[in-house]
Predict the 3D structure of the following.
Amino acid sequence: MFSSSQAGSHQDALIVIAFGLDVQAYIENEAHQQCPRPEQCPHCGTVGRMTGHGSYGRKPKDLERAYRLRVKRWQCQHCQQTTSCLPSFLLSFRHYLVSIIQAVLTQRFEVAASWSELRPRCSQAGTPALRTMQRWAAAFAQQATTWLAAVGAALAGQDNHSPWLEPRPPTETASQSVAAALLTASLYLLAWAKTRWAEVTGYDLADRLAFLWHWGHDRGLGRLV
């Protein structure tokens, strides 16, 4: 199963799960109740001692509304530490859905839109605020080098026919930012992953950041945005 886990810096560890990309369906079906029990504690490594520990609320936003949903929590009966199962359409420490954040990042790094051009394309009635979008872009750019190296290594090890591994990858230009390269490389990684994991077969171009977050968190890459 394609799942991911990594201990966080706070008390809760974090597991990122592919619950699908439909937020409303997640809420209506109470999908957090269907979260698979972690086999191993991300904190201490103990196997078979995770028990349900309730849930907590999140209120992620898109351009029109804030949603109310629950995130499943587990507790290790050996070390007593807790672990949360976050749906892949949410990022830790961010209040907007991944799809909204991706729209900003692709406009900024792939389209090379200025902030004055980007605001009417990616915000509505001042939401998200310009400073919020700028923080997303800065955080993504800061993490991009580490994440791009991991994506390149994964493709080299699993899909050695990918155009990304040519001596000069198809997106490589003198002026291209590492952040833009990561967005493009994620497409090749997603194409490969869709042949391996049923959970991501429905992911497409608009979902690549959710996939990248899901994939990378499993490998200990930490925050993406």
In short: The chain has a mean pLDDT of 87. Strands lie at 3-6, 13-17, 50-58, 69-76, 82-87.
